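Page 47, continued from p. 46.
Same chain as before, 382 aa.
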Amino acid sequence: MLRAERGYVEARRELRLAHKATLRLEDGALLLDAGQASQRIAAAEVREGWVEPGAGEGETTVVLCMRGGGRLAMRVDAADASRILEAAGVGPHQHVLRVPLGSEASQAGQGVVFHLLGPFLLALVSLLPASVLLVAITAGHTGAAVVGAAILVPILAAWFGLLRFTASGTAVVGADGSSIEYWGRKRFVPHADVLDVELERGWADAEHPGKVVVVTEKERIELPTTTYVADAPERARALAARIVEARREAVARIDDLTAAAKKAALVRNGRTVDAWRGDLARLSAERSDYRRVGFEAEELVAIVEDSLAAPEQRLGAALALSSRKEPALQQRVRVAAAACARAPLRVALGHAAEGELAEAELEAAVAEAEAAARAKRAQGAG
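Result:
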């Protein structure tokens, strides 16, 4: 059972929730009960949906756009927002969000001139060379035809530029990234590349956002929602909120994959101790991101100090730290080694801290741990 406060439905629906209402999710439908007024909204009726951040902490607004043209907005707890979108079939993992974008011309105060006068003036300019070309081809005058064609080439380029400048676009936000689509051009921005998302005011209304700016490491990508007829602040907020949410999930997935990759990178995998030590030294010196695995010193120390980590991973972390030649870090490894009750692991960690781990010491520590694990499994099976 969820609560929706101050919800409202616009356009072709009449239900208004002036106060709190009960919202139930049942059988692929949203059931709204506001006392005397109630409404059942099937998931098939919902065309699109998004979440707008609320003014208060823990509050958010869920907006559902209906196929019939209506729009339902509900103020709910932030924890319930994703559940409502998923029940309506328009959650981030079920449906992309499409937001209309204004043209480049619409972002300039004089842009309307290009829309209204540009095609008219270009049509007039195109008329003469087009006529010359047609007459020349009909009459068989090659020279005149070449002149007419030469004049038409820059005019066609001007038409192409005008269309690009005045064409509206669409931002398509999915689970993997955002596709920015305009006439004749398209680009894709992975969520993992996004550093920040900003809202900026539109040129037509200084009080409300009219543009979303996606910040990456190399550039700032502007996504204007302002048009000639509307500043569309709700579109800007919806677009920004969906990108932020999708980016947060993408970063969480990358963090999980990176953590697993880091632990796997510490395992010996049949390498000699010298080769293993060299590879670990390189990993210790590299910076980690979603393209490659690297380690910070504290990450390595945490693995060494983790008594539940596999011995080979703890020894690999200790070897990686030894390449840094930092006494404070080596001392923490020695302390972790001294806390080990198993003698082979205690000896191996102590030597790994100095970068002097021997093959026999490594094999002894791993063999004892594997024997202990087998005994524990046998005891549990018995």
